[in-house]
Write a structure and sequence with these properties.
By secondary structure, the protein is mainly α. It has 4 helices and no strands.
Length: 85
């Protein structure tokens, strides 16, 4: 696994290759936030971002990942199951 930050997921109404690649990242993010871990820690440990360098940017990226992870729990997983991959 790389220490490079993850590129933010796209905000589109379809399942993307990036969503497939990020499935475990989405689960880690949702698990950590459900456990009460702060966004800065999740951004650093899961998304490989450094919130100390640019907190606003890191927060926006965290929010995009969180929104996409949430979308995956409501919509994306159904599309994943239909795709058979």
């Amino acid at each position: 696994m790389t220490d490079e930050p993850y590129a933010p997921p796209e905000d589109v109404p379809v399942l993307t290759d990036r969503d497939r690649a990020y499935a475990s990242v989405y689960v880690q993010l949702l698990d950590a936030t459900a456990a009460g871990v702060g966004w800065q820690t999740v951004a650093k440990d899961v998304l490989k971002l450094d919130p100390r360098m640019d907190a606003n940017s890191a927060k926006k990226i965290f929010d995009r990942f969180h929104a996409r992870a949430d979308w995956m729990t409501r919509v994306g997983y159904k599309l994943l199951l239909k795709s058979g991959r």
